[in-house]
Amino acid sequence: MSLLDIENLSLTIGDTPILKGMELSVAPGEVMGLVGESGSGKSMTALTVMQLLPHAARATGRVSFDGIDLLAATEDQMCALRGDDIGMVFQEPMTALNPVKTIGEQVAEGIRWHTKASRAEAEDRARKMLDRVGLPQAKFPMSRYPHELSGGQRQRVVIAIACALKPKLLIADEPTTALDVVLQAQILDLLRDLVAESRMGLLLISHDLAVVTEMADRITILRRGEVMETGDTARTLSEQLHPYTRQLAQASMHVPARARPHGIETGRPLLQVEGVTRDYAGRRTSLFRRAPGIRAVDDVSLSMAPGQSVALVGRSGCGKSTLARMILALDRPSSGTIRFRGETITGKGETELKPARRNMQVVFQDPYGSFDPRQKVEKLVAEPLHVQDKKPTRAERREMVAHALHEVGLDQRDMDKYPHEFSGGQRQRLSIARAIITRPKLVVADEPVSALDVSIRAQILDLFAELNQKLGIAYLFITHDLTVARAITDEVLVMHDGKIVERGKTNEVLDHPQSEAAKALVSAAPDLHRAIARRMQEQG
Amino acid sequence: MTLHIDIPEETLGSILAKAFRNTAFVAGFVITLLILAMAIVSYGWTPYDVTKLVISDKTQAPSLAHWFGTDHFGRDILSMVMVGARNSIAVALVAVGIGMGVGVPLGAFAAARGGLVDEALMRLNDLVFAFPALLSAIMITAIFGPGAVNAIIAIGIFNIPVFARVARAGALAIWPREFILAARAAGKSSTQISIEHVLPNIATLLLVQGTIQFALGILAEAGLSYLGLGAQPPMPSWGRMLFDAQTRMVVAPWMAIFPGMAIVVTVLGLNLLGDGIADILDPKSRRQR
Amino acid sequence: MTAYLLKRLAIALATLLLASMVVFAVLEILPGDPARLMLGMNASADQVELLRNQMGLNAPLALRYLHWVGGLLSLDFGRSYTYSVPVIDLVRERLAVSLPLALIALALSTMIAIPVGLFSASRRGRAGDTISMGAAQLGVAVPNFWFALMLIYVFAVWLRLVPAGGFPGWSAGIWLALKSLLLPAVALALPQAAILARVTRSALIEVLNEDYVRTARAKGLPYRAVLWRHALRNAMIPVLTILGLQFAFLLAGTIIIENVFYLPGLGRLVFQAITQRDLIVVESVVMLLVAAVIAVNLLVDLSYAVVDPRLRSRQ
Q: By the 8 A CB rule, do B15 and B281 touch?
């Protein structure tokens, strides 16, 4: 018998249908992967099971857990189930913990509530649980507050809270999406072990097919509130019978078609970074003392040829974004020089930087945050023209914006719209249009596809590749995602603790990493091919 | 503390449509409009002449002839309330203008520059906040003599740090956004960015604060003129009318009731308007509905 | 923690110092010669000059400032021109009315506002919430001195339960004295309570939308338990901020309210002193009130650190 059985579940919020005839089951000790792109209703499925839906939500159908009809359960019954028989882990570890309570209190709270144990007893159990999730007493006493912990450590606390009472079912909603690949691998290992230890059922929700394949026994693929396919993970993904499954799998592994990369051009390099260091002063501990500072970037040197596509990879906090900002002259190095097309840009004022600004542009990660919502597309895309020596007339400007929009596959009529009228993928196209309007020689892209759904991501990668070929723009891709690096770059630089620890041809580095940091990244990176192969092997 | 700003992504049309479905906004809008209309009408017409004393009609209870009754000089209270509205609105509005005009650029500048400039401006703000506003207003009007202009200045000065704080907090929440980075990468100066990107995005925040300060200004003006430091007789003002009413409460309670109601309704209208605007424009508060 | 404390303390002291300069400077540029004022219009120029010398008014500005600050620090505030008694005695006498009044009002306002805010937030969108927030909306709009007049009309003129004004002094018995402070305190407190209740409610609702509230709900805690255990403490910061600001409002409010009720308090003292140009009283009382506001703000800053561990451990 199943532990969790969802039959013909439909959900509406206000007048918007979210789920339509959803079917899903989880057996005791089974890992069920629920996969879908954003807006497919996967998180709402989890919240329906928890009965923590927004007020305007109406659910019909049947959701039974351990023989209890959850849709008909009273709030008191649900309170008894939540945290005791059903635990849940959320996506965003940075905000999931109460900032004014110690981690010990937060883990012990649920234990006390459900078992009516004494404070000492509950704290004892909480301590054991924290030890179990990898936060040992010596380094992580119960009196720690969440802000004293890193994101990965906080996610361990959230898992400790969810698993403290050995629930029969654990729901994990994108538990690793906010973490870098190395932390992701650690957290997934922890979840796998916990589930195996106490034969929990696990409902793992993710947009990442590779992650789910590595973890799940069975898989359910959701699209716009409807189940597309459900079945054994290995079989479903190796056979790819359903067209949507195939589409998702192919998009996850997509490599844009690129002709031979531009031959390494001779002559002067496009970008030279020499011995660049960036220190941040420590906080003042008293009136006269400061904590030791942080060296975000430590003596980094690199050079890029025109038209070359280079990936800068590393774990979060390794200093890659700081380095990118210095290259873009948005931040000043503490020491070292950066030369762009032979000109030194470090220490220059805005006026002197104008020629450099014309030739280097930026694409950011968040397609929602990178546009001023109060301005129209025409003004936004034209913003870099500000550095042009000769200000274009309004007609010329519209002409240039229209051309740039056309190049990224948007309609020129789009220029009179506001950014919110576009989808995430379209906004990233707008971002790219803004970046290429001045015909720059270098585009720095900071995680440009990591906020996008896989199918959109594939299209944007294609666009990057196409523009690289057509316009000869050099790219510096900053990413923690090795799939992206592999798909679109010729060379890769691996950064760790502010230093560049390895560099070389992309395929060579990713297939045969030499440094510890690169090895860790490569082995932790989820890879759909590998995951399917391993699953098939296990099942013989 | 950091301030979180959700920037609503809507067009004017959809905002207006939403506005007229919001009860608080509609109520506040209608009340404010009525009070404004009353003040404007008073320039051309009032039921009775407020400067003419008719001793034979003194302290009459509300009747068909005098809807709100008459005061101890036989003046019509409705007419006086109408004329008093002018004064209250003018003082509060100009004081908000002073506060916004000086405070917003200061706050935006502090946020854009950061570092020592920011620190210095904020400490200056702390300094002004340390003086209880009404006490200082009393000092200012007492020193420079009572009157509407000095009341405006006194109230306006204390609006400056309020707007500076709100503008700074709002601007600080906008500055780390990626679209600001994009503008910087396009070579725009911090002044250009403040004007083109920051101010339009904190405008709603300032609008809401503006209605709040407007309402507080009405209250402060009433307080000052109650103490005899606002507009001077024979110009009627709501606060002064209440002062005159105080000693005659037993014989003519209407002298106190109606001017007070005028203040309450005006302030209520403005607060509802502010709440309504905040509700309509803040997606977070919408989610709670 | 110490760094945070020291920084706040340094800021408070610096603000106090600047404030004293501002007060001194403002009164310095005031028109009117205090010596002439004391002696009257008939005094000769020589007499005035003599008194100016006695009062130290002819000393250099900086010296006079230092002398004044020194006096403040040693609680020697000088003598009032109009009352001809040491200012410190006047202040002490008036403080015995104003301080209890402000404290009763603050306590009353907090005791009403926090429960109403909690009640409203816990039944958001339901009838109870709508009614109490409607009342709060109205309360915010009521000027306290008008509210005071209405209270006098109902409770003193009509029902004759309490005196309409005046203060019998603490020597007349605690009960009588308190009785005469009751209406003024209510008049001060209710409009403030309305503001505080609204802030409490919206702070709670904001916190209730946070991710950690969902985590707590997922632990199995019912809504009410989450409100008390998780939301309340996190919502305290904006509430404390407003409470600090309200103290300044209450102090200023006493000026008007004491006038309405003819209470011999500090507010009435300073108001009369301003109109009578009794500058030495004005500057002393203003400095005292400013110091009180700064001290309360420092207290609020410190209580942030008690509520929020992030401030405590900030290095």
A: yes
